[in-house]
Write a structure and sequence with these properties.
The protein is of the alpha/beta class. It is built from twelve helices and 15 strands. The structure holds threonylcarbamoyladenylate and magnesium ion.
């Protein structure tokens, strides 16, 4: 037998092997355009349970089901509004997850017992090939241990899960780099539960109204109250969406978000106190202070997103006392990144 946890190049043979493993109730690492997923047959409760065990994730956190195409929607969702169909047409395959009322076929293990299910069609060609060969829904959370940084390469999946997965199909580095936008369409008012590459503005252009964004009203209020908006953490953090827990996407090294104007000073101060400091900066040049590990980050948000998780992982291996991250601008194009960095800061430093 081939060893567990192996990384396979994305050949047709590997894709068929992966589909066969899924049919047999095993779990495999699957590339997507956002992050790597930990895949199981969504209709097999025993297989889905293996996902929770491998991740160390509480069982009441629901999973996203990946579909080969929007044609599969009626099998999984009970009521599909015109707007939901329009969004699927506009953004699938792509990084948008729709939360819809579930069909009775969807196992409780997938939905965490809720009456809704999260669905998306990924755009990565290897994910689509796996889905087409498998021919049904694949449940897949991000392929990291619970609370940690999502993997954006096959090697990251191996670091996170080792032999807990049967195999990892190597689809190269993820093009988007952060998780999909989650849009809850199951209630009266559409609401973004997790920001991502598909923005509220892009959704509004399709359905003619701007979805609510979880945490947005509260952010505006805290701004009015005179608190700093940059580097603020979205304040409505209902655990209904585990990706929306305050502590998530987190390195083990304590991570601080620092406004651009204070970054170099704060880094120098910490270094002066004898700390080892890694700095991720997107808008300023390396001050050439030999006490600092200065990591330049892309100034463009899409490129920044592609590199963020790999950079955090690397920073976490440097044996640093702190990771300082230059706070992102208060700009819609940086919204999803501000969200992830805020949660990474809250969850950091635990081990
Ligand atoms: O980009 C992505 O979405 C990646 C790739 C692999 O597709 N997947 C991903 O899965 O990020 P995960 O499990 O790490 O995050 C999915 C989030 C979780 O926070 C979960 O709570 C939420 O989606 N979710 C899933 N189904 C839900 C539902 N029915 N209601 C509310 N939230 C749901
Ligand atoms: Mg995740």
């Amino acid at each position: 037998a081939k060893p567990r946890g192996r990384i396979e190049p994305p050949t047709l043979v590997a894709i068929r092997d992966a589909a066969a493993l899924l049919r047999a109730g095993d779990i495999v690492g699957m590339p997507t355009e956002t992050v790597y997923g930990l895949a199981a047959d969504a209709l097999n409760p025993e297989a889905v349970k293996k996902i929770f065990a491998a991740k160390g994730r509480p069982a009441d956190h629901p999973l996203i089901v990946h579909l080969p195409s929007a044609d599969h929607l009626p099998r999984w969702a009970a009521s599909i509004s015109k707007d939901a169909i329009a969004l699927a047409r506009a953004f699938w395959p792509g990084p948008l997850t729709l939360i819809l009322k579930r069909s009775p076929d969807v196992p409780d293990e997938v939905t965490g017992g809720q009456d809704t299910v999260g669905l998306r069609v990924p755009s990565h060609s290897i994910a689509l090939a796996m889905l087409q060969v498998f021919g049904s829904g694949i449940a897949a959370p991000s392929a990291n241990r619970f609370g940690r940084i999502s993997p954006t390469t096959a090697e990251h999946v191996r670091e996170e899960l080792g032999e807990r997965v049967a195999m990892v199909v190597d689809g190269g580095p993820c093009a988007v780099g952060i998780e999909s936008t989650i849009l809850d369409f199951s209630r009266d008012v559409p609401e973004i539960l997790r920001p991502g590459a598909i923005t509220p503005e892009a959704i509004a252009r399709v359905i003619g109204r701007r979805p609510r964004v979880r945490g947005e009203v509260e952010e505006a209020q805290s701004r009015d109250a005179g608190r700093t908006a940059t580097a603020s953490i979205p304040s409505t953090l209902a655990p209904r969406v585990s990706g929306a827990l305050a502590a998530h996407y987190a390195p083990r090294t304590p991570l601080r978000l620092v406004p651009p104007a204070l970054l170099a000073d704060e880094a120098a101060t910490l270094a002066g106190e004898g700390s080892r400091v890694a700095v991720l900066a997107h808008s300023q040049a390396d001050p050439r202070d030999s006490r600092l590990i200065w990591q330049p980050m892309p100034a463009d948000p899409a490129t920044y997103a592609r590199e963020l998780y790999a950079s955090l992982r690397t920073a976490d291996t440097l044996d640093a006392d702190f990771i300082l991250v230059e706070a992102p601008p208060d700009d819609p194009a940086w919204r999803a990144l501000a969200d992830r960095l805020g949660r990474a800061a809250v969850g950091s430093g635990e081990g």
